[in-house]
């Protein structure tokens, strides 16, 4: 059986833990490096990416999570979590000090949908989940501005803009599957974690 860690420094980690509990998946909060012991995958929740990034740095989780991911541990970031996984945030939307994990070869633009569309929902075809479409909730969501050659797009908005990506075992979604009752994305991530092999040095 798989155990999932949920980064619990700030943001909507409780909703992720609830989704995992409903699936019967063992999960616990990650607040410091020792909480990473025994997990097969880590979820980085939505929230405020600058705050989470600074706390990741202060707790030394930033480097430890980066190492684990580079050794094959699956990571999934939702919204602020997607921002934290990115290689780069556009200069206009980057905070003065915005620590990033830098594990996804993408450039993101924070709060990219403008004030009249601060939050919205739509139905998305998410490639690995198959039909029916997934109800996707966007809240002050980032936009993916540029994508490197090793990154696969898993879902796009109707206008073609990518909102879910994957690079190996690193997954990022601009929307929040933890805020709906559809558990398919969480189930898929747990399956990925179950199949992954983490290479310890
Ligand atoms: N706007 C937030 C940020 O830039 C992300 C919003 C969210 O996670 N719902 O950190």
From TrEMBL:
GO cellular component: cytosol; glutaminase complex
Enzyme Commission number, as recorded: 4.3.3.6, 3.5.1.2
Active site annotation, chain numbering: 79, 176, 178
SUPFAM superfamilies: Class I glutamine amidotransferase-like
Membrane spanning stretches: none
InterPro entries xref list: Class_I_gatase-like, PdxT/SNO, PdxT/SNO_CS
A single BP term in Gene Ontology: pyridoxal phosphate biosynthetic process
Tree of life domain: Bacteria
Catalytic activity: L-glutamine + H2O = L-glutamate + NH4(+); aldehydo-D-ribose 5-phosphate + D-glyceraldehyde 3-phosphate + L-glutamine = pyridoxal 5'-phosphate + L-glutamate + phosphate + 3 H2O + H(+)
Keyword check for Protease: no
Keywords associated with the record: Glutamine amidotransferase, Hydrolase, Lyase, Pyridoxal phosphate, Transferase
Gene Ontology molecular function: glutaminase activity; pyridoxal 5'-phosphate synthase (glutamine hydrolysing) activity; transferase activity
Pathway: Cofactor biosynthesis; pyridoxal 5'-phosphate biosynthesis
Residues the record lists as binding L-glutamine: 47-49, 110, 139-140
HAMAP family, per database record: PdxT
Subunit record text: In the presence of PdxS, forms a dodecamer of heterodimers. Only shows activity in the heterodimer.
Family membership noted in the UniProt record: Belongs to the glutaminase PdxT/SNO family.
PANTHER family: PYRIDOXAL 5'-PHOSPHATE SYNTHASE SUBUNIT SNO, PYRIDOXAL 5'-PHOSPHATE SYNTHASE SUBUNIT SNO1-RELATED
Function: Catalyzes the hydrolysis of glutamine to glutamate and ammonia as part of the biosynthesis of pyridoxal 5'-phosphate. The resulting ammonia molecule is channeled to the active site of PdxS.
Protein name listed in UniProt: Pyridoxal 5'-phosphate synthase subunit PdxT
Organism this protein belongs to: Thermomicrobium roseum (strain ATCC 27502 / DSM 5159 / P-2)
């Amino acid at each position: 059986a798989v155990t999932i860690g949920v980064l619990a420094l700030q943001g909507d980690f409780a909703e992720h833990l609830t989704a995992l509990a409903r699936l019967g998946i063992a999960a616990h909060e990650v607040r410091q490096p020792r909480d990473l012991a025994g997990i097969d995958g880590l979820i980085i929740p939505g929230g405020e990416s600058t705050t989470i990034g600074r706390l990741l740095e202060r707790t030394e989780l930033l480097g430890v999570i980066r190492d684990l991911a580079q050794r094959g541990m699956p990571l999934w970031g939702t919204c602020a979590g997607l921002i934290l996984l990115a290689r780069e945030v556009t200069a206009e939307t980057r905070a003065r000090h915005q620590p990033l994990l830098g594990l996804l070869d993408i450039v993101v633009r924070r709060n990219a949908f403008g004030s009249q569309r601060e939050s919205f929902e739509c139905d998305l075809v998410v490639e690995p989940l198959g039909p029916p479409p997934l109800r996707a909730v966007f809240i002050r969501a980032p936009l993916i501005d540029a994508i490197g050659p090793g990154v696969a797009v898993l879902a796009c908005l109707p206008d073609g803009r990518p909102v879910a990506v994957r690079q190996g075992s690193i997954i990022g979604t601009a929307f929040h599957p933890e805020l709906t009752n559809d558990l398919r994305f969480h189930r898929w991530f747990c399956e990925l974690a179950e199949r992954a092999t983490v290479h310890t040095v």
